[in-house]
């Protein structure tokens, strides 16, 4: 069945197939654009196959050579100061200790921050 071959990528859709699909979807106005896109994809695929006909080694060497010729030095970006300081491990402990202690209540034991408690 042709639909299955198109879905699997084994066969490209013809212009008639695309127009029929667009009509079925109520998108007749998009048929010409889809046909042009399908032709462009076919063209790109043929070009890719031509470039890779002899294998990947030559393509990779050509790309590496192009990269070496066009590589620009990385720009020097000055360090940026973060507006608020990043808290040290002691600062969050100090900020949350009163909340944890009040949640535990005065007579309820439990773990404390910093490992200084009895549990």
Describe this entry's structure for a reader:
With 119 residues, the chain is mostly helical. 57% of the residues lie in helices and 0% in strands. It is built from five helices and no strands. It has helices at residues 2-7, 15-25, 31-51, 56-70, 90-104. The longest helix has 21 residues, at 31-51.
Rg from Cα: 33 Å
> Element order, helices and strands?
HHHHH
Amount of helix: 55-70%
Largest sheet: none
SS element count, helices: 5
Termini separation comes to: 72 Å
Name the descriptors.
119 residues; single chain; mainly alpha
Describe the SSE topology.
Blueprint (H helix, E strand, L loop, with lengths): L1 H6 L7 H11 L5 H21 L4 H15 L19 H15 L15
Brief account:
With 119 residues, this protein is mainly alpha-helical. Helix content is 57%, strand content 0%.
